[in-house]
UniProtKB/TrEMBL annotation:
Domain HTH lysR-type: 9-66
BP GO terms, sorted: DNA-templated transcription
InterPro entries: LysR-type_TF_proteobact-type, LysR_HTH_N, LysR_subst-bd, WH-like_DNA-bd_sf, WH_DNA-bd_sf
Protein's UniProt name: HTH lysR-type domain-containing protein
Coiled coil ranges: none
One Pfam entry name: LysR_substrate
Source superkingdom: Bacteria
Organism, as annotated: Mesorhizobium wenxiniae
Length: 301
């Protein structure tokens, strides 16, 4: 660390000095820093004692800088200006990005295919995508998140993108050598790929079968994964049948990387929401992104 810390009584003393030197008035310096005049006077005396030199000439109608005071003020004001410029640049850089957080599979399979089109339409808006392995709330560092919530969720800055609808998916390669698959009853005769999220509750094969009145106890998965992206890769590689979600599988189905071997599906009482901070108004750019996401997912609501 710089030895500057040992050369001054406190950082506050430099702020007090800079304000007083700029205003040449202790009262106005106190107003600027929202402190008492006696606090400014104390800080200045402490700085002068620490430096062993007088910085101000006190007079009835104000103060004047001594030669040493002018020399220090030139250095301090220049340094503060450099720091302020650096902070402004950092803040402008952060504010120029919209940060959106979502699961890896959501980001990879639904957001990424859409964002090229979004940035063609809104070329001045830059996006920062965070992948997360658990539910998080928007905050000062995350503008928007995508989460699965009860369909009746009512909160400020929460928009329903899509109902949660799930269905079996697999590759056509898998079906070429697989046993017949014409109805729900046939699924237990196949390699079922299971997804068990340690942090977020998701519908799995037992719940899927139960929705059709089937006994879930007879289900024996061929493989279990704790990351849904791995489930999708396994299904695309022909390793078995997975549960697919409308949003994450939309483009994979359109590109024929996956297919639906059965038309059976389950729509739950949950939905995928895009969320902003409840207590804050959205930035204009963030609202543009929200509106665009809602437009892209309108057919899934």
């Amino acid at each position: 660390m710089s030895p500057l810390r040992t050369k001054i009584p406190s950082p506050q003393a430099l702020f007090a000095f800079a304000a007083a030197a700029d205003a040449l008035n202790f009262s106005r310096a106190a107003e600027e820093l929202n402190v008492t005049q006696s606090s400014i006077s104390h800080s200045i005396r402490s700085l002068e004692q620490h430096l062993g030199t007088q910085l101000f000439i006190r007079a009835n109608r104000g103060v004047m800088l001594t030669g040493h005071g002018k020399h220090l003020f030139k250095a301090v004001s220049g340094s503060f200006a450099t720091i302020e410029t650096a902070i402004d640049e950092l803040q402008r850089r952060e504010l120029s990005f919209i940060t959106i957080a979502a699961s890896t599979s959501m980001a990879t399979n639904w957001l990424m295919p859409l964002f090229h089109e979004f940035q063609n339409v809104h070329q001045g808006i830059k996006l920062k995508i965070l992948t997360i392995d658990r539910n998080v709330e928007p905050d000062d560092s995350i503008d928007l998140t995508i989460r699965l919530l009860p369909i009746g969720t009512e909160r400020k800055n929460a928009w329903l993108m899509a109902r949660e609808t799930v269905f079996p998916v697999c590759s056509r390669l898998y079906l070429e050598d697989a046993a017949p698959l014409e109805k729900i009853d046939d699924l237990p005769n196949h390699k079922l790929l299971s997804y068990e999220d340690p942090y977020r509750q998701r519908i799995n094969w037992p719940e899927f079968f139960a929705a059709f009145g089937e006994n879930p106890r007879s289900i024996e998965p061929a493989a279990i994964f704790n990351d849904y992206q791995l489930v999708l890769h396994s299904a695309m590689a022909g390793e078995g049948i997975a549960i697919g979600w409308t949003l994450t599988c939309k483009f994979l189905l359109e590109q024929s990387l996956l297919c639906r071997p059965l038309q059976a599906e389950v729509t739950t009482q949950q939905g995928f929401f895009v969320l902003g901070q409840p207590g804050k108004s959205l930035r204009k750019d963030s609202k543009l992104l929200v509106d665009w996401l809602l437009k892209q997912s309108s057919e899934l609501r």
